[in-house]
Design a protein that fits this description.
The complex is a heterodimer. In chain A, strands 2-4-7-10-13-16-18-19 form an 8-stranded mixed beta sheet, with no helix packed on it. In chain A, strands 1-3-6-9-12-15 form a 6-stranded parallel beta sheet, with no helix packed on it. Chain A is mainly β. In chain A, about 5% of the residues lie in helices and about 30% in strands. An 8-stranded mixed beta sheet of chain B has the order 2-4-7-10-13-16-19-20, with no helix packed on it. In chain B, strands 1-3-6-9-12-15-18 form a 7-stranded parallel beta sheet, with no helix packed on it. In chain B, strand 19 and strand 20 form a beta hairpin. Classes of the chains: A mainly beta, B mainly beta. Chains A and B meet through helix 1 and strand 13 of A and helix 1 and helix 2 of B.
């Protein structure tokens, strides 16, 4: 018995991917585990443009109605996408190590609804009893770079060519060409 | 060229990695992107989640009795870590806050590069922070003996963490932390010396 290293180094057969994943030319996806939490039933549910590189830390955690698009030449090093509706990335986007990008909080914020949500989400709870959850699509513009460990929350647009600094927690949109840094993130016009 | 007895990853530890006596290394997988040199002292623990993402100019030296619980080290320059240093979970030590793995830096990429097939190589330099001068050397990073680096902290090029200093969880460090001082927050500030 031996482990095939192509399963973790990018040489695996991409035709194993779900049918609703649309791959551009020359895309490279390091590990199939990136798709373990891919539950989108939309077609397409995921679009990767030409020459997109997806490293093994990336996770496409897509709920049934989610659609994620990634423009050409983008590099996803360690992006955990928590997507319930829609996240769009432009071309030449760079996502560094340990980044999280979400389009929902995935749970209600009202305390009473949170209790109902906790009980419905319990191992033996009834998922049908979960209260509705708000989602707000997010986007990252062409040529934007997202720094190590940054977290981008729902409803945020990162403008063309913007920079999000390491460890920034971003809950408001960042204009084109601007830089956001810190926790909570502050926007610095450049 | 040597295999770790306990390893699940069917590849040897690369030749440019030297590991001291009684040092535990979780897997050769830690080096599957790396193209640089690593020297680890004796009695260290290098645990699951640690990845050396070194360009050809990357040179890492780690002292004795260090614990690296889980760090990504991404640089094309020198990194020096002293003795008795503790690095917690999900720490990143990187030349740029927009770091990406080295070009052609996975086994599969190298295989395809040999055959002229790797997408990132075909298109020339990959877009992004390493795009302009992908193999230019990065500034040195130093972490002094006895320092502690908290979970999810980010240590960037030019950082000098002094002997016995403490970097708090989630702090982002790009400059000097004096010996014995504590740095916290993002952007980081010094809170004690």
């Amino acid at each position: 018995m031996s482990f095939d290293d192509r399963e973790v180094t990018g040489g695996w057969d991409h035709s194993r991917l779900p049918g609703n994943v649309q791959l551009g030319r020359r895309c490279w996806i390091e590990r199939p585990q990136t798709f373990e939490r891919f539950r989108s039933t939309r077609d397409p549910g995921l679009v990767l443009g030409d020459d997109v590189n997806v490293y093994g830390w990336t996770v496409f955690n897509l709920e049934p109605d989610a659609v994620l698009t990634v423009g050409e030449r983008s590099v996803l090093v360690g992006a955990v996408f928590m997507c319930s509706e829609r996240i769009e990335l432009g071309h030449d986007v760079v996502i560094s190590y340990g980044v999280t990008i979400a389009d929902s909080d995935f749970h209600p914020s009202d305390p009473g609804l949170r209790r109902r949500d906790a009980e419905a989400s319990a191992p033996y709870g009834d998922p049908a009893g979960r209260p509705p959850v708000e989602s707000r699509p997010g986007s990252i513009g062409d040529g934007a770079w997202i720094g190590i460990g940054a977290i981008i929350l729902k409803g945020v647009s990162i403008g063309t060519g913007a920079r999000v600094g390491a460890g920034a927690v971003v809950s408001r949109s960042v204009p084109a060409g601007a830089r956001a840094e810190g926790n909570p993130a502050r926007v610095i016009e450049v | 060229m040597s295999f770790l007895e306990h390893d699940w990853f069917p590849r040897p530890v690369p030749d440019d990695v030297v590991v001291g006596e009684r040092t535990w290394l979780y897997s050769a997988y830690a080096f599957h992107h790396s193209r640089g040199a690593v020297r680890i002292g004796a009695d260290c623990g290098i645990y699951h989640g640690t990845h050396f993402e070194l360009g050809p100019g990357g040179e890492v030296e780690i002292g004795d009795f260090c614990t690296i619980v889980g760090a990504v080290i991404a640089t094309n320059g020198p990194l020096w870590i002293g003795d008795h240093t503790f690095v917690a979970h999900e720490v990143t030590i990187a030349a740029s806050e927009f770091a990406v793995p080295p070009r052609g830096g996975s086994l599969e990429a190298r295989r395809r590069q040999v055959r002229g097939q790797h997408p990132a190589e075909e298109g020339g330099d990959r877009a992004g922070p390493l795009g302009a001068t992908p193999d230019a050397p990065d500034a040195p990073i130093a972490i002094g003996s006895g320092a502690w680096i908290g979970a999810r902290a980010v240590i960037l090029a030019g950082a000098r963490v002094g002997r016995d200093a403490v970097v708090g969880a989630g702090a982002v460090i790009a400059g000097e932390v004096p010996p014995g001082a504590t740095a916290v927050g993002n952007p980081a500030r010094i809170v004690g010396a």
